[in-house]
Amino acid sequence: MKRVTTMVGILLLLVTLSPVSASSSSSGSGDYYHPYPTGLIPGDIVIGHNPISDLIIPGYWTHTGLIAYYNSSIGEWMVIEATFDGVVLTPLSEFLKRYDTVAVLRVATTDTVRWKAVIFAYQQLGKPYDYAWYTKQVYGDKYYCSELVWASYIAAGGPDIDANPGWSWTYAYGVAPQEIYDDTDTYVIYYDGS
Asked: Which domains are delineated in the chain?
């Protein structure tokens, strides 16, 4: 347990010192371009790869959020995501341009469960970021990105979209974006790499 605590401390230090935040460009030198996904529905999961975060987040995928609704006033899908600024709403185009590779996943469940997941995530807006990546909770007072997406589906009565729900050496007791991508209850409906 001491080794896990030390590893978590080192990861938190790296994240704190990293110049990259979830709201900035992942390359630091410009934005990535991806064709805007079509055929989206509320409850879809958008996931991205950041080559800098890749150094500290296990797996290829490094960030995830939940497609919430289509905002017709700005002509954009909105994403609920947990960033270092807390749980926020972000236009999908802003999310997409931060990552060199992006995908959209659909959860194999009903539209009702998807809507309930969105409602749960929406109720978490404004909560702070959770730096305890080694664990996860459904009803918390703070969330990291993949914890929020996972918790939203658990709270909605949907499938457990954590591919490794117990302890693992790679993810401890947490849930990483890679685990959501790898789970058998999610499947890819959009993929684009730079």
From this structure: 38-193 (3.90.1720.10)
